[in-house]
Amino acid sequence: MSKPLILVTNDDGITSQGISVLVKLMSRIGEVIVMAPNSPQSGMGHAITVGEPLRTKENRLFGEDIASFECSGTPADCVKIAQFQLPKGRRFDLVVSGINHGSNTSVSVLYSGTMSAAIEASLDGTPAIGFSLCDYSNQADFSHCEDLVVNIAKQTLEKGIPRGIALNVNIPAKQGLPIKGIKVCRQTNARWGPSFDQRKDPHGQDYYWMKGDFINLDKGEDHDEWAIGNNYISIVPCQFDMTGHHGIRQMNDEWDI
Amino acid sequence: MSKPLILVTNDDGITSQGISVLVKLMSRIGEVIVMAPNSPQSGMGHAITVGEPLRTKENRLFGEDIASFECSGTPADCVKIAQFQLPKGRRFDLVVSGINHGSNTSVSVLYSGTMSAAIEASLDGTPAIGFSLCDYSNQADFSHCEDLVVNIAKQTLEKGIPRGIALNVNIPAKQGLPIKGIKVCRQTNARWGPSFDQRKDPHGQDYYWMKGDFINLDKGEDHDEWAIGNNYISIVPCQFDMTGHHGIRQMNDEWDI
What we know:
The structure is a homodimer of 257-residue chains. By secondary structure, the first copy, chain A, is an alpha/beta fold. Helix content of chain A is 25%, strand content 27%.
């Protein structure tokens, strides 16, 4: 049986440490193709590039045996163009994104370029996973989670996930104790409050740096922030259908339509 | 009773025709503040600006009576900074985004800057609506939908929508026949297939323009593409919780965790 074909991408850019770890781990279980942004794309959400052209450039950043390309676009662009460049009839068996330097729990899934790549892949039913380490350091230690990352990718290939689902996997930062295990979770009900640092430039004009205060409103113990806070890996299965069906019911009952 | 406070934003930029129509219509029912991008932001998804500073600049584009600001950031940035700049204790009663020049039905909600602004507003429970006209022309005719846009905004304020919901409203392009009415819908199961126009630059290097083929897989008649195709306004209530709960069940049943 041929090895599964795995696309690796990310949002921190092709030279980040997290993607090199993910390429190494995925090479244990499949044939890897890399298509990743040529510059950091954090916070890009599900942006795509429609108003200007895209470029790709082949490199050998991950050794002679791994086909690797940098792309001028966003993470979602990378998935689209990698799918487009595959020979006719071939498909990716798995798309993985990351490992992101920093958490993508809760509502951060909306802002996350890492997850937008995974969700883009899920649109045609390709199994997809976004991996994030809850450690923002560029020199973060990934050694405590390597076997678990491989395990999650293998189970996605072998046991499967429902069609159209992308997994949002968050991994606790390395601590004294080993990770306790894996929790399959719902998305935490939390948000980033609007918070800015207001400054004056040398010409006396105001400008603003976004900061953001994390506001966790969720008292449950079945959500991803809870899992990370208790030293578990969290997996939230994410769907691209954003319909709030309870809203359809309420509007059909109460509105004049 | 004081008038409701309404934030108007968009993704086509503050000088587009669509936002000027929306500002005019919202002024009929509330006190309007405008905070919109100073350049077009189509396809920006839920991008936010974390790696560089933001600027805002007051203008009087919509007359002396309307507080109006242009912002250097994305639609989601505009909502955050407008919330931040409100005097302490004040909140928007409604956030509206658009009117977008072009459709945002189906999975386009993921790529849409128009809808990302509405979803950003919904995160703290502010009622929010993204309006899109299914006509990409910069000189599009909005006259056939003005009363319906006002009606939808008024009902959102008066009858309400569930907390955390943002409405994705799409409006058929002006045709010979008047719009038949409003349908509250689910998101169409469709996607944009990866499609690019591959060209060579004057230096012989390849570049790519994203095109995208719309692939509609949905045989139902209760979704937004169906409504638009049948000359109805579609309203999809959208939620920011992307959890696919059926995925939690399957993984807990079938995976080794």
